[in-house]
Design a protein that fits this description.
The complex is a heterodimer of chains A (154) and B (599). By secondary structure, chain A is mostly helical. Helices cover 64% and strands 0% of the residues of chain A. Chain A has one domain. Chain B folds into two domains: 92 residues, Alpha-Beta Plaits, CATH 3.30.70; 349 residues, DD-peptidase/beta-lactamase superfamily (Beta-lactamase, 3-Layer(aba) Sandwich), CATH 3.40.710. In chain B, 36% of the residues lie in helices and 24% in strands. In chain B, helix 3 crosses helix 4, helix 9 runs antiparallel to helix 20 and helix 12 packs across helix 18. Chain B is elongated and about 145 Å long. The termini of chain B are far apart. Classes of the chains: A mainly alpha (154), B alpha+beta (599). The interface between A and B is large, with 54 and 56 residues.
């Protein structure tokens, strides 16, 4: 079998070149594939990064709007505004003669409005994109290899 | 063939040399310090941006969660100078001027600032501000105009939060105001916890390095002890009575004697804190008082001392009762005159009231009786009690700029220095201090000390902060006992005496259905030429229900012109305020409370 192959290469040396060419082409195709894959992931992660930045700005804006809206609600329900509205609706101020006190057991009394308690914020400045989406092919290759060797205890 | 090969090798060598040169240059660029620095600088300029994060200032609420100070979204409108083209300028100027109301010439000046991106240049300019604090509606108008007119594309805006007070001028005296910093009241006192410091952070513009926005902790929110409804009602009443009585100013405090909570506090003038700082301060002008330039106090309740007059008699009587010098039924023969330290003291009406019990002394507000009491108990005992009531110091209420005036006494005779021309304690001063002249205190000092009489002798620390909202939780303030100047029995006795006093003279301070205790105070005003006669400070302090006090009210009208007498000016104000607050505080009339208690 080996003799047959040697003879075939001797009769038509271009077969060797074809073999080399195929190997080179294979390497090139694999290289291009890796680059395309890398480009694809990095472009996606870059897009995600931009989106994160846009959303962060949006959140900042929303926080301002929410805070502003709370104040607008307070303005619309301020003591003077409510008094004027009550007057327009025909209500009058309660006096001693209008009031009858009743004893109701377990009555807890006047309850205040719910105050929104802001949550604790404890996330320091940190990168929002996981390293898996930002590392290069080499990083991936070497880190993957080292991780594998580490798992195998070598 | 060999010639061909030689040429081939020659070309190959040239290519190889060229490649070597490129590689050499690449290595040189990579390692040369000049190129490394250049690369870092240029790279950072493009990929790193310094951004300032302003923390959100904490909200202030009343005790029921009504917002008293919050933030609204406003915008800063301007033009991006690199986008301003010569053809755009005419449209830009007329549009921005008409929309924002800013003077045309000023807009033109701002739009024509040359673009200079170099931050180190003295003429650095990339953005020119035209209008600050623009409302959302203005931005919507600009957005619509930009869609129709391409000359306006350089107009841009950035949002930020502006301190806003939904209740307007209501409560400004204790709230203070905020304008790049907190001034006066709660805004001033709690400035450091209402807002945390702004942070500058370098943000990477590299999409791979997207960083979370550094979350500046929001300023802490503060829940006040103030009841918005009581505050509103007290302000309405005070505004009206100041006008009706032609008083130059008015101050009122409603206070919970059991906890030291301030339920309402008002004084005049009251500016709208939503205005600019200049407009606010214009309402508190510098005035010439007795030859001195004095700024109108922002909150007279804590920032102005005055001679309170006869309301101070409650301390003299409390001291005499608590020290065992007298009992309510001890008799005193009023001849209308009493000598003390070389000074002759008369009653307010220069009359002699004959035989009086101690209750009668309080009912008729007899100066002579008070001087007699001091003589009986001794100067040392008298001053020890004044000191026990903390009348020689500030209350340390959590409001900015509290003031105090030294209590002149044998222990502190020359607080202003030893110069004989300066005010100093003399023996005769003890006599006038016994009925509230020759002593200067703030209304908050008075109410905090007198509240001990309404709280079994326990004096609570006055405070306006009920709770702080911080780090995702609410921390409530624990009421604190400052001192116990008198025994509980003395407090009950004097409360009863002052209720009988009001009932005995059918005072206009009485409130139908509720037994209240109180004392008027009409004080002459000291000037550099001596005490005034035609103008007084009229005060009233009262608390109730007498059997279980839930509130104490202090009223001070400065220089009323309708009448100089507190019994005519401030006593009816107390009655009106109490009539309102018993409803707002859900306090049933005495007979119904007794009925409920007996069931």
């Amino acid at each position: 079998m080996k003799n047959n192959t040697n003879q075939a290469y001797r009769q038509k040396p271009s077969r060797i070149r074809t073999q080399w060419l195929s190997v080179v082409l294979l390497v090139v195709v694999l290289g291009v594939l890796a680059v395309v894959l890398n480009l694809n992931i990095t472009s996606k992660s870059a897009h995600a990064g931009v989106q994160v930045r846009i959303l962060e700005a949006e959140r900042e804006k929303l926080e301002r709007t929410i805070s502003g809206n709370r104040t607008i609600i307070a303005q619309l329900t301020s003591a003077k505004t409510m008094q004027e509205r009550a007057k327009e609706l025909g209500y009058i101020k309660a006096t001693r003669d209008n009031i009858k006190y009743l004893y109701i057991s377990d009555y807890v009394g006047k309850e205040g409005q719910t105050i929104i308690i802001p949550q604790t914020r404890n996330n320091p400045t940190q990168n929002l994109i996981k390293p898996i989406y930002t590392r290069s092919v080499w990083d991936w290759l070497f880190q993957g290899t080292f991780a594998m060797l580490d798992r195998e205890g070598k | 063939m060999s010639q061909k090969l030689t040429r081939f090798y020659f070309i190959g060598i040239i290519f190889i040399l060229f490649a070597i040169a490129i590689v050499y240059r690449l290595i040189q660029i990579q390692t040369d310090p000049f190129f490394t620095t250049l690369s870092d600088t240029v790279g950072n300029q493009a990929s790193v941006k310094v951004k300032t994060y302003e923390p959100v200032r904490g909200n202030i609420y009343d005790r029921w969660g009504n917002l008293l100070a919050g933030n609204t979204e406003v915008y800063e409108i301007g033009v991006n100078l690199n986008q301003v083209k010569e053809d755009d300028k005419a449209d830009l100027v007329s549009f921005l001027s008409s929309t924002t109301g800013v003077d045309r010439e000023l807009v033109s000046e701002r739009v024509n600032i040359p673009y200079e991106p170099n931050s180190e240049s003295p003429n650095f300019a990339v953005f020119s501000t035209i209008f600050k604090n623009a409302p959302k509606e203005m931005i919507e108008e600009i957005e619509m105009a930009q869609e129709e007119n391409s000359h306006l594309r350089s107009v841009s805006w950035t949002g930020r939060l502006k301190r806003t007070y939904p209740e307007g001028s209501m409560g400004i005296n204790y709230l203070g105001f905020y304008s790049s910093d907190g001034f006066y009241g709660v805004e001033g006192f709690y400035n450091n916890i209402l807002s945390t410091t702004s942070t500058q952070t370098s943000i990477s513009m590299n999409p791979y390095d997207v960083m979370a926005i550094p979350e500046i902790p929001e300023g802490a929110g503060i829940i006040l002890t103030i009841d918005r409804e009581i505050q509103n009602r007290v302000e309405e009443i005070m505004d009206r009575v100041i006008k009706e009585n032609g008083a130059s100013s008015g101050t009122a405090i409603v206070y919970d004697p059991e906890t030291g909570e301030i339920l309402a506090m008002t004084s005049t003038p009251r500016a709208d804190p939503n205005l600019s700082t200049g407009s606010i301060l214009d309402q508190y002008p510098v005035e010439s008082v007795d030859g001195y330039d004095v700024q109108t106090p922002f909150n007279r309740a804590v920032m102005q001392t005055y001679e309170p007059g006869s309301v101070f008699k409650v301390f003299t009587m409390a001291a005499a009762l608590d020290s065992g010098t007298v009992t309510p039924d001890t008799e005193f023969v009023d001849t209308g005159v009493e000598e003390y330290g070389g000074l002759t003291i008369y009653n307010w009406d220069y009359g002699a009231w004959g035989v009086q019990t101690m209750t009668g002394c309080m009912q008729h507000s007899l100066n002579v009786c008070m001087v007699w009491l001091v003589k009986q108990m001794g100067t040392e005992t008298f001053y020890n009690y004044l000191s026990a009531f903390n009348l020689d110091r500030k209350t340390n209420v959590d409001l900015d700029n509290e003031v105090s005036y030294p209590l002149l006494s044998p222990n502190n005779p020359t607080p202003f220095g030893s110069d004989p021309l300066l005010t100093r304690w003399t023996d005769s001063m003890t006599a006038t201090q016994a009925f509230g002249q020759g002593v200067a205190v703030t209304p908050i000092r008075m109410i905090a000390s007198i509240a001990a009489l309404a709280n079994d002798g326990r004096m609570m620390a006055p405070h306006i902060q009920k709770a702080i909202i911080q780090d995702g939780r609410i921390r409530y303030y624990n009421p604190k006992i400052v001192s116990t100047p008198i025994k509980p029995e003395t407090a009950h006795t004097i409360t009863d005496m002052l209720a009988i006093s009001l009932e005995g003279e059918s005072s206009t301070a009485l409130v139908e259905g509720y037994r209240v205790s109180g004392k008027t105070g009409t004080a002459e005003i000291p000037t550099s030429q001596g005490y005034t006669t035609g103008l007084t400070n009229a005060s009233f302090v009262g608390w109730g229900p007498s059997s279980d006090p839930k509130f104490i009210v202090y009223i001070w009208l400065e220089k009323p012109t309708s009448s100089i007498w507190a019994s005519l000016v401030t006593a009816p104000v107390f009655s009106e305020i109490v009539e309102n607050i018993v409803i707002l505080m859900n306090i049933p009339p005495d007979n119904q409370r007794e009925q409920i208690a007996s069931n």
